[in-house]
Amino acid sequence: MKGYVVCVYKNIANEQKLKEYAIKARAAVEKYKGKFLIRGGRSTSNEGEKSPRTVVIEFPSYDEANKFYRSKEYQNAHSILKDNAERQHQTIEGV
């Protein structure tokens, strides 16, 4: 079954740091055969608080999605977000 990484941002304090993160994170996504399904874009909040950004990435498997998150490449990118963005980040197994 496929695996999905879902990131729902609560706030973004520094857009420039987010751009730096995105460049490094994209390389890690590609290395682990991930495919962006949602990366920002227009949205409508139907319930709850509106998020400034949502990202969904599809991976060949749940295990591959977790390998991506734990990878040195992604963790290097992830460190850029410290104090620059707050978000909820989940790995979810598909059906």
3D architecture notes:
This protein is of the alpha+beta class. It has one domain (3-42, 49-93): Alpha-Beta Plaits, CATH 3.30.70.100. It is 35% helix and 32% strand. The protein is built from three helices and four strands; from the N terminus they run βαββααβ. The chain has a four-stranded antiparallel beta sheet, covered by helices on one side. Helix 1 packs antiparallel against helix 3. The model has no long low-confidence stretch (mean pLDDT 96).
CATH architecture: 2-Layer Sandwich
- Write down the Rg: 13 Å
What percent of residues are in strands? 25-35%
Count the DSSP helices.
3
Q: What is the terminal-to-terminal distance?
A: 7 Å
Strands across the major sheet, in which order?
Answer: 2-3-1-4
Mean pLDDT across residues? 96
Instruction: Please identify the top-level CATH class.
Output: Alpha Beta
Detail the topology: elements first, then pairings.
Layout: E1 3-12, H1 15-31, E2 35-39, E3 54-59, H2 62-70, H3 72-78, E4 85-93
Quick overview:
This protein has 95 residues and is an alpha+beta fold.
Which features characterize this protein?
95 residues; alpha+beta; Alpha-Beta Plaits; 4 strands; 35% helix; globular
